[in-house]
Structures are given as structure tokens and as C-alpha cells.
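Dear Dr. K.,

Following up on our conversation at the group meeting, I've run the structure prediction for Endonuclease III from Streptomyces bungoensis. I'm pasting the input sequence below exactly as I used it, so you can double-check it against your construct before we proceed with anything downstream. Let me know if the numbering doesn't match what you have in your notebook.
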Amino acid sequence: MGEQSSGSSNKNGKADKKEKVAAKPPAAESRTALVRRARRINRELAEVYPYAHPELDFDNPFQLLVATVLSAQTTDLRVNQTTPALFAKYPTPEDLAAANPEEVEEILRPCGFFRAKTKSVIGLSKALVAEFGGEVPGKLEDLVKLPGVGRKTAFVVLGNAFGRPGITVDTHFQRLVRRWRWTEETDPDKIEAAVGALFPKSDWTDLSHHVIWHGRRICHARRPACGACPVAPLCPAYGEGETDPEKAKKLLKYEKGGFPGQRLKPPQAYLDAGGRPAPPLGAG
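The predicted C-alpha cells came back this morning:
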């Protein structure tokens, strides 16, 4: 499904500018069909990104917690370039809790919003020392009490440092699950609940990685590479982006530097006999 035009004309007889119309969900898709389609998308993405993981570098729960807080409004690459110096100077919560804010700000300056982030990481370090003996807690209700830590950050830490399932609803995740018509919710907490109900709890952490990796590499916000997408036949929003396979291939972010663990096939591997991605499966 792609762009449609209204076909109307203005009073001067000139055709109105072509309008984009949001793709509609598969007609009369039942709850059972939605669950099947959602799980099939996740299986397809698991084959494309078999080693999907947090793209923040960390050696322990404390480092992951701090890195995730720093990743707000910046890239994981930028955070990974910044945290080695931070953790070399302040390797423990006790060290960061006692740090001079101005010195921390200087280290974090490349991450943007460095003053607010400095306040958060020093504040959460002080809270870890005062309330948890310098250890990162492994419970959601404890993590979200820390300065600068919300549910998204908490689930990243729980899922990847403690092995406890959680759904990470970042901007990529929100965009893709709405494009796939898994939910129409816009509030992150409601998205988390709606999507979580479609999958076994044991799938939640890996599902988050698969969706986020796909959003960063193929299903971009402005120009999704529909013509090179492995889940195009399952996507009711197919056509919102570039559908020509060769043009779409140029939009793939992995080609600009590469991403370990990614097994993207050539765009042609996802095409039908007519050279186009198959239409959405609908009731799949």
C-alpha cells in the first residue's frame, strides 16, 4: 500500500498537490491473525539480526545503566566514544558519586545536554551508594526511582544485565510497531502493554533488539527502505518509503560501515516474480 492522491481539482482547474494517505491495517484482521503476523515479523527479523544486542558498550550493570542514561538525545556511537574516559576515571558508583560535576561535564560534553546528564549520573550514583550499597538493583520498581531512569532505561538494564524480560519502547520501537499496526497507542507505557500482550514474555528482550535494529538500519523515520525490507510482505505500511529495490538498497544504513551479526540478503531475495515485494499478507 502506498501513496494515494485525492484526484480533486481546485477552482482554477489545477490538480491539487498529491497527498500522502496513511496505509490502513489489513482488512478485518482478527486478534489471532494479528498475533500470528506480529510473531512472524519477529521470526523474520531474528533471522536477519541473529546477534542483535544493545549497541552500548558495557562490562557490568552500572556501566550499562549510566550509558543508557547518556544515550538520550544522542547516538550509541557517541556514547561509546565517551564512556571509556568516564569509566576509566570513575569506575564505580562510589567514585562517580564523589566526582566533581565540572570534571564530569567536561567528559560528557560530546553527548549533548551534558549538564543535565551529569546531574543524572552523579545523582543515580549517589542513590546507588546510599540506598543499594553501591549495587545496581535488579527490580523495576527500584530502578525507576533513580535520577534520570525511566521504564525504558530500566528495561534495557533488566533485560541485558540481569536477563529479566522487558520491552524497550524507544523512538524506533514506537515508530515500527505503529507502522506494522500492532497497536494504535501513542503513550509508551500503553505501547509496552499492547505489544507485550502479543508475545510470550520470554521474547520481550530479543523482540526489542530486533525492532530497534530494524528501525536503525532499514525502516527509517523519513525514508524507509521498503524495497529492501525483509518483512515487506507482512507490512501494511509498505509503500510509505522507497519501493524500488536498487534505490532502497542505497538507504540501508548497514552499508555505511557495517553492523556485526547482521545477515541481510540482497534486496532481490525478498521480491516476487514480478520484481516487487509481495503485498501484505493481511490475515497471515
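Two things stood out to me. Residues 62 and 136 are 6 Å apart (CA to CA). The chain has two domains: 26-55+167-284, 61-161.

Best regards,
J.T.
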